[in-house]
Inverse folding.
């Protein structure tokens, strides 16, 4: 699971002229800015009124993810790009505003497995009945509501034309954001597994996806685990994968096409490819030591080879004394290159069908 910066959408729901919602939303983002920086969060404010969403007008069911109107596609991109939500909502007649219900109803998969917190405001109930109403809806969309909430009584939070709920509510808001971050990171494997770009892996519950610079920390750890065995087998620590920093790893992740196999937030294995003329170069094939012998390496190698359409052959290398690696490659049709051994490294190649 990548440790990238989280994107949290602060959704302001009221669309009435001169509504309190935008002011409360501004107070919230200003208050949380220092905490967000510490927690690695980008807070993005969005007012529902600025989305120009009519009452749901899509022909296809939201669960299909098929959107015909540009206003829906824009809303889909915004929600899909978020890792969690803080909804700033008033209470209307014991419930949430119709604008919020409509915005929720427009989408389906984009909401799934993301945490949502609530900042409510109102008179006697401080908007808490709107939150209870909304929780029934968001759980159906597989959003995960937080236990922490911020409930503001208008008489206590608004002084003239100034929104200032005070220290107690600011501290509660900071706690809400901290909880949201923990839940968002815990749910990240669920979100990734259901992403349309993810591919089911060879182990139950595992999935593969493309790796990027945000995954550098996990890749660095996997390399240190896997290449120590090769270092012992070859009697040398002079192996680049053992000495790369996370910044070094992030740099090559930006240049190579790399695939990682994941399960419950753990990087199980990886492989990278790059084209050079008619050759497809494969490297950094790694499988966590406790999972070796389960076919994960063969599966990853097959995924790498599948990227070689139009190439004449696949080329890879390993330590000359890494007999288990060499045996795996030979079983998959690789043969040592005549001039492919140099400084304790052996190169192998396999022709690809036209």
């Amino acid at each position: 699971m990548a440790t990238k910066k989280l994107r949290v959408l602060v959704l302001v729901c009221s669309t009435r002229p001169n509504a309190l919602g935008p002011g409360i939303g501004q107070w919230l983002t200003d208050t949380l800015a220092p905490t967000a920086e510490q927690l690695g969060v980008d807070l993005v404010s969005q007012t529902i009124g600025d989305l120009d969403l009519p009452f749901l007008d899509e022909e296809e069911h939201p669960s299909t993810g098929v959107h015909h109107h540009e206003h829906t596609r824009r809303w889909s991109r915004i929600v899909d790009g978020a890792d969690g939500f803080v909804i700033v909502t008033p209470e209307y007649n014991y419930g949430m505003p119709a604008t919020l219900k409509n915005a929720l109803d427009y989408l389906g998969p984009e909401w799934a497995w993301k945490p949502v917190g609530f900042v409510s405001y109102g008179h006697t109930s401080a908007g808490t009945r709107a939150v209870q109403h909304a929780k029934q809806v968001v759980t159906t969309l597989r959003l995960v509501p937080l236990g922490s909430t911020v409930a503001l009584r208008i008489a206590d939070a608004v002084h003239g034309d100034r929104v200032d709920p005070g220290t107690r509510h600011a501290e509660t808001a900071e706690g809400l954001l901290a909880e949201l971050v923990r839940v968002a990171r815990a749910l990240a494997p669920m979100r990734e597994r259901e992403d349309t770009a993810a591919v089911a892996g060879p182990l139950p519950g595992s999935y593969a996806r493309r790796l990027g610079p945000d995954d550098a920390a996990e890749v660095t750890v996997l390399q240190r685990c896997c290449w120590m065995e090769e270092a012992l087998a070859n009697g040398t620590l002079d192996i680049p994968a053992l000495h790369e920093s996370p910044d070094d790893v992030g740099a090559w992740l930006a240049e190579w096409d790399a695939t990682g196999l994941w399960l419950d937030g753990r990087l199980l294995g990886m492989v990278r490819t790059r084209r050079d003329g008619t050759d497809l170069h494969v490297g950094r094939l790694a499988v966590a030591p406790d999972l070796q012998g389960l076919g994960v390496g063969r599966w990853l190698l097959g995924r790498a080879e599948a990227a070689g359409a139009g190439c004449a052959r696949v080329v890879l290398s390993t330590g000359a004394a890494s007999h288990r690696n060499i045996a795996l490659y030979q079983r998959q049709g690789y043969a040592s290159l005549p001039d492919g051994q140099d400084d304790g490294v052996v190169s192998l190649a396999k022709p690809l069908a036209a």
About this structure: The two ends are 36 Å apart (CA to CA).
